[in-house]
Amino acid sequence: xxxxxxxxxxxxxxxxxxxxxxxxxxxxxxxxxxxxxxxxxxxxxxxxxxxxxxxxxxxxxxxxxxxxxxxxxxxxxxxxxxxxxxxxxxxxxxxxxxxxxxxxxxxxxxxxxxxxxxxxxxxxxxxxxxxxx
Length: 133
Known about the structure:
The chain is of the alpha+beta class. The protein is built from 5 helices and 6 strands.
């Protein structure tokens, strides 16, 4: 895992999402999850600038934004979401308090509150978050 894996995917080479490093705890946690999956979990989104965050449908106060830089999205080819969750609960520190399960993979952040949510589509093209706790 390199710094480039965390950088914003926008076209602006000077955006804050390319120059802001992730927080230590989220970085180390993602690294642990990637190792535990033998590299099958990969980062799909790390730090994002506001423009790119808006383009991908992120919230206005997304933890991916440079002002927080404490979130990561991971995808895992060939691993069921349930199994990725089990691995995450085994290797992640208790301070990883927010976990979102999506059809594409997993969101992790260290915002300081405990949350677990599962994305469940209501109809084609729409969705919602069902909070577990």
